[in-house]
Design brief:
This protein is an alpha+beta fold. The chain has helices at about 5-20, 65-80, 115-120, 150-160; strands at about 45-50, 55-60, 95-105, 105-110, 125-130, 135-140, 175-180, 180-185.
């Protein structure tokens, strides 16, 4: 388990990584990259908000890279490569707040009917991955704040995956769930 102090260090690492890419001065003297927890491989997402609105979000579900390298790379991708947004500009840097979501390993979600699916999901706790064929999408647990109704949540997730909004009602999806340990710059 990552402590709050370690989570704040991850946020600083993410911010420094973005600042370096923008050519801004950075102070990384308080970052000790030799701490053992930075060797942990963990799925993670970095989310940027500007004035409370989403400004970028990219991550990896599977634990591929150690936090030491994964946090910075993911932060740069969220800031500059999220296809929904223009790359972050220098004048926006001080206007964005960062979040880091550390993911648990996804677990297969067993269900037989759409009614059972809706009943078994835990809003505000479950991150959800859906897959059908080559189409796949996920929503972090934080998305429940915008879509608290499970039917809307699942419909929008299907649309994100490029599927019909009602695909979740047909019982043909493979679903995995996960939880996150969330660290935010702004409370």
């Amino acid at each position: 388990m990552i402590s709050d102090k370690q989570g704040q260090m991850l946020l600083k690492m993410a911010r420094i990584s973005i600042a370096e890419k923008l050519g801004l001065p950075v102070d990384d003297t308080q970052i000790d990259l030799n701490q053992p927890f930075l060797k942990i491989k963990q799925g993670l997402f970095v989310t940027l908000h500007k004035n409370g609105a989403l400004r970028g979000c990219i991550g990896v579900i599977e634990p591929v890279e150690p936090l030491k390298t994964g946090v910075g790379e993911t932060a740069r991708l969220a800031a500059f490569k999220d296809s929904r947004f223009a790359p972050l500009a220098r004048d926006e840097f001080d206007q964005v707040d960062l979040e880091i979501s550390l993911l648990s390993l996804p677990e297969k979600f067993e269900y037989r009917t759409s009614k059972e699916l809706v009943q078994k999901l835990v809003p505000f706790k479950d991150g959800v991955i859906i897959a059908k064929g080559s189409r796949r999408a996920t929503f972090l647990p934080q998305v429940w704040q915008q879509l608290p109704d499970p039917t809307s949540f699942l419909s929008q997730l299907c649309i994100k995956a490029g599927l019909d909004a009602d695909e979740w009602t047909k019982g043909s999806l493979t679903i995995h769930t996960y939880r996150v340990h969330l660290f935010c710059e702004k409370e």
